[in-house]
Design brief:
This protein has about 110 residues and is mostly helical. It has six helices and no strands. The longest helix has 15 residues.
């Protein structure tokens, strides 16, 4: 299993917050903050766009660290990913991600 796969099966290496952090790319931070603020109708600033990956030690965005229900659930259950959870089939929380991105299901089953 790839270490940079999030609990939900998304690939952290493709996330703009991760890319901005590892490349110290301020322009990408600004672009991502603007987009995420508009999408979430929330005050997201460039300094909030820092993340080293969902499942690794290190900094995370506020959302990933504190607000993501999927991450909180997986950490509480002590599973490596949602695919390792005995409640995976029929889970409504992960179901939203899977319906929006079918690649996630393949990542979690692989």
């Amino acid at each position: 299993m790839k270490e940079m796969m999030a609990y939900c099966g998304l690939n952290c290496e493709k996330c703009d917050a991760y890319l901005a952090t590892i490349n110290n790319d301020q322009a990408l931070r600004e672009k991502t903050a603007k987009l995420w603020a508009e999408l979430n109708n929330a005050p997201i600033l460039p300094e909030h766009i820092n993340c080293e990956g969902c499942r690794v030690d290190g900094i995370k965005t506020v959302y990933c660290d504190s607000l993501c229900e999927i991450r909180q659930c997986a950490v509480k259950k002590g599973v490596a990913t949602c695919g390792d959870c005995h409640e995976f089939d029929g889970c409504k929380t992960i179901g939203m991600i899977i319906s929006d991105n079918p690649e996630v299901l393949k990542n979690l089953q692989g």
